[in-house]
Write a structure and sequence with these properties.
Blueprint: H1 8-15, H2 22-27, E1 34-38, E2 51-52, E3 59-62, H3 72-75, E4 79-81, H4 88-93, E5 103-106, H5 113-122, E6 127-131, H6 135-148, E7 153-156, E8 170-176, H7 189-194, H8 197-214, E9 218-228, H9 237-246, E10 249-251, E11 260-261, E12 268-270, E13 280-287, E14 304-307, H10 311-316, E15 322-327, E16 330-335, H11 339-348, E17 351-354, E18 356-362, E19 365-368, H12 370-374, E20 385-387, H13 390-397, E21 409-415, E22 418-425, E23 430-432
Parallel strand pairs: 5-6, 5-8, 6-7, 8-9, 20-21
Antiparallel strand pairs: 1-3, 1-4, 2-3, 7-17, 9-13, 10-13, 11-12, 12-13, 14-15, 15-16, 16-18, 18-19, 21-22, 22-23
Helix pairs in contact: 5-6
Length: about 450
């Protein structure tokens, strides 16, 4: 892609802002660092001798950008490419005081980097609801969380205003607000084309609406983590001041020792002129007030049925601590004790991912879903797995078939210990059950 010059109005503003200065402008024209986070639930890193990101327990820098699409480990959810600055969220979550089983909302969650980070932080405890208003992006969010393999995650496809009735439900809400994207100018040339002074003002106004739409859903003493990938005061410090004026809240006092304190000490920045990051701004706001019990009214009657394990559960599921829910002909696993909360969310929102989908009930038993193959903590160790070579794995991920020895029936396939999905072996051939919408479309040779 042809390099696009930085917008003139942006250059003018930054060069006259002593907080940012010309050093930022120079940094935005340098090579971007490449960072990932490994999935701690699926074993050690598949990368060796990497530089650690100091504020992230599972974050690392890569020396060069690989073709992620051609790495089977990426498709199996073994790691996630995530910009290092946004991994400040990992540091922040570890400083906050949560109950044993916290309920978190990632409101503007697609494509899913921060949601997978939160899932890693929760480590099976509590529940994460990841939401995305744009339907196509919500499907990508569902895919990435499914590959990450955490049964205590739900995905919804709702406008922030739809959360109005879920009062005092969440212990923490992350709003990585849609913004003017100044922090992405180095890695995304298109962001430079789309930026304007007007877009900054429009984004700042939209961010205020988004925060207020979900404010009542946050519990008293709960945390609002507000973040953007931009540098201007309108979308950052000034919006924080506005939130504090409109609500009974305060900035939660905490230190991020690697980051730069915001203007007037409000929030923190990752600046590419000072760290190996893109641009990122974050602040933690704590809601004040007294705890009150709110009865949440359902918008519709729940269509979920709690299910007792049947004989075929032992064949597929290696975790006896889950609850099982039937939705139409499909079965889902969620952590024990969360079925009532799941039903509440399902009755009020458009839920498109409900824990880990085990599969579809048929007359002959269960037709397993890819989510079960990708949930390493849930899948039974008795399920037969067929290791693939790299070449076979890539052909599998393209949806192709090839000669493969194996046991008749449903088998998982894997690459170097990373499970990728299901096949149905027919003796002399197999049906490839890797989801069509996930398949590799680029050439693999």
């Amino acid at each position: 892609m042809k390099k696009v010059e930085l917008p003139e109005a942006f250059v003018e503003r930054v060069s006259h802002d002593p907080f940012l200065g010309d050093s930022l402008l120079r940094a935005l024209n340098e090579e971007q660092p490449i960072a990932i986070r490994i999935n701690s639930s699926k074993g050690p890193s598949v990368f060796k001798d990497l530089e650690e990101i100091p504020w992230s327990k599972t974050g690392f820098y890569l020396q060069e950008r690989p073709v992620f699409t051609l790495d089977p480990h990426f498709h199996g959810g073994r790691y996630y490419p995530q910009e290092a600055g946004s991994q400040f969220i990992d540091w922040i979550l570890r400083q906050l005081d949560f109950p044993d089983e916290p309920v978190l909302l990632d409101l503007c969650a697609a494509p899913g980097g921060k949601s997978t980070l939160i899932a890693d932080f929760l480590n099976g405890k509590g529940l994460l609801l990841a939401n995305e208003v744009i339907q196509n992006r919500s499907k990508i969010l569902k895919e990435n969380l499914t590959k990450w393999g955490a049964k205590n995650t739900l995905v919804s496809n709702n406008d922030p205003s739809d959360f109005e009735g879920l009062k005092s439900l969440f212990d923490c809400i992350l709003i990585d607000a849609p913004c003017s994207g100044e922090g992405m100018f180095r890695k995304d040339q298109e962001a430079r084309n789309e930026w304007s002074v007007e877009s900054v003002k429009l984004c700042a106004a939209r961010q205020k609406r988004i925060v207020m739409d979900v404010w009542d859903s946050l519990k008293p003493n709960g945390y609002l983590i507000y973040s953007t990938c931009t540098f201007n005061t309108d979308e950052n410090e000034e919006n924080v001041r506005w939130i504090l004026d409109q609500t009974d809240s305060k900035i939660h006092s905490m230190e991020i020792p690697f980051a730069k304190k915001g203007r007037d000490g409000i929030g923190y920045y990752a600046l590419p002129s000072e760290l190996k990051t893109e641009g990122f701004y974050v602040v933690v706001i704590q809601k004040q007030g007294e705890e009150r019990t709110h009865k949440i009214k359902s918008k519709k009657k729940s269509s979920l049925t709690r299910l007792k394990p049947e004989a075929w559960f032992n064949e597929w599921v290696g975790d006896s601590t889950s609850e099982f829910i039937q939705w139409n002909n499909y079965v889902f696993a969620i952590p024990a004790g969360l079925s009532e909360l799941a039903e509440t969310l399902h009755s009020n929102l458009r839920i498109i991912k409900l824990g880990t989908e085990l599969g579809e009930i048929s007359r002959k038993g269960l037709i397993p879903n890819e989510a079960l193959a990708l949930d390493s903590k849930l899948l039974s160790e008795h399920v037969t797995d067929i290791p693939l070579t790299r070449e076979q794995a890539l052909h599998y991920l393209k949806g192709e078939t090839f000669s493969l020895d194996g046991k008749h029936g449903f088998n998982t396939v894997s690459f170097e210990g990373t499970r990728l999905g299901w096949i149905k072996h027919l003796g002399n051939r197999f049906n490839n059950l890797f989801p069509k919408e996930w398949r590799i479309r680029m050439r693999i040779d």
